[in-house]
Amino acid sequence: MNLISDHPFLTLLTTLAVAAWMASVCGSPGFTRTFPREGWSVRLAFLGWCGVSMGSWWYLPAALPWLLCVALGVGVIVVLVDLRSGRRAHDSPPGRLSVLRGIRALARRDYYLHEFDRHGGFFKMSQFGQPTICVLGLDRIGRLIKGHSEYLGPSTLPISKSVEGSFLRYMPPETHAVYGRLFRIAMTEPFAATQTDRLDHLCEHHLQRFSAGESSPYPALQAIARRSLNCLLLGFDADTKEEARFDELAQKFSKAGISRSLVRRDQEMLAEMRELLLEKVDSNVPGPEDIDDTSVLARLRQQDPTMPDRICLDNMIVMHRIATGNVSSLLSWLLYRWATESSITAEIHDEDPETRGSSLRLFLMETLRTSQSEYLYRRVAREFEFEGHRFPKGWLVRGCVWESHRTAEGIDEPARFRLRRAAAKPSRRQFAPLGMGAHACNGGEVNELICLAFLNRIAHAGELRVTCADPLRREMRHWSHWQPNAAMQLKLGATG
Ligand code: HEM
Questions:
Q1: Could you identify the atom of ligand 1 that is nearest to the CA of residue 327?
Q2: Is the pLDDT of residue 291 over 70?
Q3: What is the arithmetic mean of pLDDT over 37-66?
Q4: Whose CA is nearest to atom 20 of ligand 1?
Q5: Does ligand 1 have an atom closer than 6 angstroms to the CB of 156?
């Protein structure tokens, strides 16, 4: 302590240096561009810390050693977390388990690509203190995930704990064998043209205001996704009293975070939504000839008269909640791409509206490939070895799908957005936006129906202008998706 009080200026400099080292992570210009609120808060906190430290040096030197202890204490915690992560890291892939590096990575979309360039197909990193092995290449990710299912468990979202029987993606294998199959059949049966017409009507309704003036498209995109799912998944006809009630609950339920268990109020909402779905399915018993024009919920009953049980109902509601987020975010990417890929959209505009469908489908696929799909996460349940690397128990595995799409071999300029017609069409080794294996997405058809109805609508609009869509943004979590900026504005020409 004497050493510290004898050299107050050195103590001040050390106090500031430790704080600057930590603030440089979250207060850097790059970080602040992606996370303005967090970046500016850290900058302000750092300035405050500088003020307090200098004030103490000038007026109250006796307090300075305590400030140094606080700064060093935080620094030591960071170092200890890194050391703890690295304890069982021998023979694991190359890379550094540094919490601060992991936080810095959040703001860089090219971080994973950069690390793969350096280390090859595998590297390790720390995601808020959680050691994570990142893997490149769809073929390799497929062999890893499908070939090691007994060693790899899900990386479960906390909301799943509040779902009866757990959410499909995280169910124990024996439960998934029953419910996974039931849902997959119900969701992949063809849908009827009448349902496409309903989606078209919803898109037209929610997009019409953008012909009058520029405004944020996000509320409309959320409404299109949510209400389309009300129709396709649950069978609610738009603008009926029962749809309005369910929609109101669904909007409130969307505020329940998926990264925590449901609180009592959310559980009450879940119970009310469950009741509405039961009433819906009991009041509407379609015959087998109506299969095309029925919702996924009704198809569960058609498959098995004892269904939907509580596991199905809870899964439908949480699926509706998560899929609304997935689909509306994809719709925002479709807008962004439509506005930025002007030569491609001009080409589509010039096509005959009757035959435009296949180009719109390619446009959707390319948007999924280059923008929306990002990763597959798993947790190592039992240690194993793969391609010469040890995968320690408890670590996370991140299959880097976005990076694999951008570096896939045998595809022309994979990092570029193009309509990949016939010969250039990507294979499964080059394109897997909806996952793979037993837990691959079963919402592909539903997703495609909604997105194509949306694309058809904007293709009819004379002109589309998107502003303030950059810089791209995400939430401060490694598993959150990149999206166009929250300030994005949309203006449409008159629809034809
Ligand atoms: C933007 C659109 C979408 C994307 C990019 C997407 C992506 C994915 C991916 C990558 C998985 C696999 C996750 C894993 O293996 O860890 C998955 C699973 C799943 N998705 Fe989607 N999804 C989308 C839309 C939807 C929609 C619209 C629905 C429902 C209507 C849906 C329902 C599901 C379900 C239930 C699973 C788990 C399946 C199971 O475990 O049996 N998804 N999705």
A1: 1
A2: no
A3: 91
A4: 441
A5: no
Sign of CA dihedral 88, 90, 94, 95: positive
User: What's the pLDDT at 496?
Assistant: 47
Query: Averaging pLDDT over each range in 351-355, 421-425, 444-448, which range is the top one?
Result: 444-448
Q: What is the pLDDT of residues 446-457, one digit of tens each?
A: 999 999 999 999
Block residue for tokens 């004030």: 55
- What atom of ligand 1 comes closest to residue 184's alpha carbon? 41
Structure-token match 């009741």, residue found: 275
186 lines ligand 1 (CB under 6 A): no
Enumerate the β-bridge partners of residue 491: 465
Q: How many angstroms does the Cα of residue 323 sit away from the middle of ligand 1?
A: 7
As to burial, measured by CB atoms within 10 angstroms (0-12 exposed, 13-18 middle, 19+ buried), residue 48 is exposed
| Chain position carrying tokens 């005959």 | 352
Q: What are the domain boundaries of the chain? A: 1-87, 158-492
Among 441, 450, 452, 483, the mutation site with the greatest number of ligand 1 atoms within 8 A of its Cβ is 441
The pLDDT score that the predictor gives to residue 321 is: 95
Encode pLDDT of 105-151 as tens digits: 999 999 999 999 999 999 999 999 999 999 999 999 999 999 999 99
Which residue, 258, 249, 279, is CA-closest to 169? 258
Cβ count near 400 (within 10 Å): 24
Q: Whose CA is nearest to atom 42 of ligand 1?
A: 443
CATH of domain 158-492: 1.10.630.10
Q: Structure tokens of 428?
A: 């499964």
| CA pair distance 393, 80, nearest whole angstrom | 20
Tell me how far the alpha carbon of residue 76 lies from the centroid of ligand 1, in angstroms.
40
Nearest-CA residue for atom 43 of ligand 1: 441
Cβ–Cβ contacts within 10 Å for residue 84, how many?
12
DSSP per-residue letters across 21-55? HHHHHHSSHHHHHHSHHHHHHHHHHHHHHHHHHHH
Regarding the beta carbon of 404 and ligand 1, being less than 6 Å apart is answered no
Nearest-CA neighbor of 319 among 157, 154, 481, 191?
Answer: 157
Q: Residue 285 pLDDT more than 80?
A: no
